[in-house]
Write a structure and sequence with these properties.
Layout lengths: L26 H52 L44 E3 L9 E4 L15 E2 L2
Antiparallel strand pairs: 1-2, 2-3
């Protein structure tokens, strides 16, 4: 800055700067930030995805347990489980094969049939694989019978 020696009350004028003012970030700084964000995203994805698979399996087990309880209530009221041809729809509305609807619970045994976590309906067989009773299961992540790990069928216990 320059000052006027003869007039001390005069307004001073700033001298022009030789360096330009720096606005924004350099390409290297942006690349470092993008790399760090990508690294953090990868770590989160690696840790979260297996948890999601486990949660889907637990949801299927919980749904199967709920449907199993509804089937037991149906059996107590109607003296037998619904047939395979009636399926799980018998829990919502009385099936045509039911001889008397007087014992069928008003409003059904469940409000809505859930789909398994992979978007497919739960499977029901009567009689089951081991004779009397029923099999209630999900085909797992792959939607095919059998399988291992996440693709394994999930049966009522």
């Amino acid at each position: 800055m320059t000052t006027d020696i003869e007039n001390p009350d005069a307004v001073s004028v700033p001298e022009p700067k030789t360096q330009k003012k720096r606005n924004g970030f350099t390409l290297v700084e942006l690349m470092v930030v993008i790399f760090i964000l990508g690294l953090l995203t990868t770590i989160v994805v690696i840790n979260v995805l297996p948890s999601q698979d486990k949660a889907m399996i637990q949801k299927a087990r919980a749904d199967i347990a709920t449907l199993g309880q509804a089937l037991e209530m149906y059996r107590l009221d109607n003296l037998s489980y619904p047939g395979s041809s009636d399926g799980l729809q018998a829990l919502i509305a009385p099936p045509a094969s039911l001889t008397t609807t007087a014992r069928y619970r008003q409003g059904g045994y469940i409000k809505k049939l859930p789909d398994d976590p992979w978007g497919r309906p739960y499977q029901y067989d009567n009689p089951g694989r081991q004779g009397p009773g029923f099999d209630l299961y999900s085909l797992g992540a792959d939607g095919a019978p059998g399988g291992e790990d996440d693709n394994a069928d999930i049966y009522a216990e």
